[in-house]
């Protein structure tokens, strides 16, 4: 089943990117230190990032750009598209993303620290 995702550039409390995956009426959300992108001229075949899980967000963030209430900065869309969930179980998400910027496989694996996840992005090239 195709679902929507978005990656937002968020400037508060420090610059980061929020990966949001649509699931059961909410957006499962992880804070990323950088967008999961690989330069076309790079020899890299995948990218690893440390992601921090955040509380679920409202679906409005699939489309919203602008100031966040409560003086929590501003968000701007970096990528948007659809994804197919290949695998989901406790502490693991594997999805194929097809977006404006990204096209590839994302694996999110929870670490021993409950809120910390390892993200691996492998583009389709």
Fold and architecture overview:
This protein is an all-beta fold and 125 residues long. Helices cover 0% and strands 62% of the residues. It has no helices and nine strands. The protein has strands spanning 2-10, 16-23, 26-32, 47-57, 66-67, 74-89, 92-99, 103-110, 116-123. A hairpin with a 5-residue loop joins strand 8 and strand 9 (116-123). The mean pLDDT is 94.
Keywords:
globular, 125 residues, mainly beta, 9 strands, 0% helix, single chain, eight-stranded antiparallel beta barrel
Provide a concise account of the structure shown.
This protein is mostly beta strands and 125 residues long.
Low-pLDDT residue intervals, each spanning 5 or more residues:
none
Largest sheet: 8 strands, antiparallel, barrel
How many separate structural domains? 1
Briefly note the structural class of the backbone. Answer: mainly beta
What gap, in angstroms, lies between the N and C termini?
A: 23 Å
What is the chain-wise order of helices and strands? EEEEEEEEE
Helix content percent band: under 10%
> What is the mean pLDDT?
94
Number of strands: 9
What percent strand?
Answer: over 45%
Radius of gyration: 14 Å
The best one-word shape is globular
């Amino acid at each position: 089943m195709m679902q929507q995702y978005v990656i937002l550039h968020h400037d508060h409390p420090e610059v980061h990117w929020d990966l949001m995956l649509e699931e059961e009426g909410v957006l499962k959300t992880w804070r990323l230190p950088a967008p999961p992108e690989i330069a076309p001229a790079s020899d890299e075949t995948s990218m690893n990032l440390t992601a921090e899980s955040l509380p679920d967000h409202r679906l409005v963030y699939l489309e919203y750009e602008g100031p966040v209430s409560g003086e929590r900065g501003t968000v701007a869309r970096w990528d948007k598209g659809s994804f197919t969930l290949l695998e989901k179980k406790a502490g693991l998400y594997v999805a194929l993303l097809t977006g404006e910027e990204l096209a590839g496989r994302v694996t999110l694996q929870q670490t021993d620290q409950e809120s910390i996840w390892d993200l691996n992005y492998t583009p389709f090239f």
